[in-house]
């Protein structure tokens, strides 16, 4: 009797049809993007039948201050190499303020650094960043003026404001919740966000940035805030999701997360 052995991966394609792999680079203390993004893509999968899987690399960052943010940015290339080993179709650099704290336009350089690192590792992938996704999404929906909520201390909120304004979008008003510890940010109650956003001076605004942070939970509040405020509501998570889908060539079809992700026939 002869026994035949066949390697499990000998005839397997590198990527399965109907499945997209998404790589995430997140701060080590982040607890939100790895919950909100999979939930958003679960809804997309339920509507379309396409499957999405997530594969993460973590860069050290506990406290939201300029020193730790700068150190995290310096680890982006190493994280890109690590996550690219999973051969993702798209890599999302899921930290907003770390990039914005590096100065106007920094998302372009960060995206290029990550793309180069993945390509040099033999696994090229498209790259989006939460910082770039936020400003590009606002631009693409035609928002010239916006208001926003952040969990940051006032100086970092001012940095985010200046960054967004450097991309041609005026911030009419902002609210800082002033939580410095990043784990504590992830424990904020998203159900309070619509009321907080309701205190913003919104006259003349084209959009509301409900969470200008990848760590502040907001998904549970996006649709309610949009319904109550009667303005498009965008968060770091919904903007990042939109750009990932765009990079994959997929049309958004996600219910209950605002008009940004609801598809071409949605309306406020």
Overview features:
maleate isomerase activity; Rossmann fold; 8 strands; 4-stranded parallel β-sheet; EC 5.2.1.1; isomerase; Iso_Racemase_Enz_sf
Overall description:
The chain is α/β, with parallel strands linked by helices. It has helices at residues 33-48, 66-74, 76-84, 97-100, 106-120, 130-140, 154-166, 182-185, 193-198, 219-229, 236-248; strands spanning 19-27, 51-59, 90-93, 126-129, 145-150, 170-176, 207-211, 233-235. Helices cover 41% and strands 18% of the residues. Strands 2-1-3-4 form a four-stranded parallel β-sheet, sandwiched between helices. Helix 1 (33-48) packs across helix 11 and helix 6 (130-140) crosses helix 11. The N and C termini lie far apart (70 Å).
Global structural class: alpha/beta
**What's the structural domain tally?**
2
- CATH structural architecture of the largest domain: 3-Layer(aba) Sandwich
The average pLDDT value, as a whole number, equals 89
Level-1 CATH class name of the largest domain = Alpha Beta
Work out the oligomeric state of the chains in this entry: single chain
Number of helices: 11
Keywords: Isomerase
Family: Belongs to the maleate isomerase family.
Modified residues (S-(2-succinyl)cysteine): 95
GO molecular function, one term: maleate isomerase activity
Short characterization:
By secondary structure, this protein is α/β, with parallel strands linked by helices. Helix content is 41%, strand content 18%. The strands form two sheets. The chain has a four-stranded parallel sheet, with helices on both faces.
């Amino acid at each position: 009797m002869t026994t035949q052995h066949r390697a499990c991966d000998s005839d397997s394609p590198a990527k399965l049809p109907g499945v997209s792999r998404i790589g995430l680079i997140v701060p080590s203390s982040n607890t939100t993007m790895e919950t909100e993004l999979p939930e958003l893509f679960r809804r997309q999968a339920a509507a379309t039948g396409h499957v999405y899987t997530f594969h993460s690399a973590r860069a050290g960052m506990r406290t939201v201050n300029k020193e730790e943010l700068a150190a995290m940015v310096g680890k982006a290339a190493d994280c890109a190499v690590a996550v690219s080993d999973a051969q993702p179709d798209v890599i999302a650099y899921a930290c907003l303020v770390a990039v914005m704290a590096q100065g106007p336009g920094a998302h372009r350089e960060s995206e290029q650094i990550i793309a180069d690192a993945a390509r040099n590792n033999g696994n090229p992938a498209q790259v989006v960043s939460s910082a770039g996704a936020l400003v590009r999404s606002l631009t693409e929906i035609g928002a010239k003026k916006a208001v926003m909520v952040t969990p940051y201390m006032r100086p970092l909120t001012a940095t985010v404001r200046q960054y967004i304004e450097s991309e041609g979008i005026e911030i009419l008003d902002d609210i800082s919740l002033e939580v410095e510890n990043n784990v504590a940010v992830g424990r904020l109650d998203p159900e309070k966000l619509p009321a907080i956003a309701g205190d913003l001076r919104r006259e003349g605004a084209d959009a509301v940035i409900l969470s200008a942070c990848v760590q502040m939970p907001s998904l549970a509040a996006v649709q309610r805030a949009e319904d109550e405020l009667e303005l498009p509501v965008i968060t770091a998570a919904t903007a990042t999701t939109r750009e990932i889908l765009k990079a994959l060539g997929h049309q958004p079809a996600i219910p209950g997360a605002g008009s940004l992700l609801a598809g071409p026939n949605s309306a406020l």
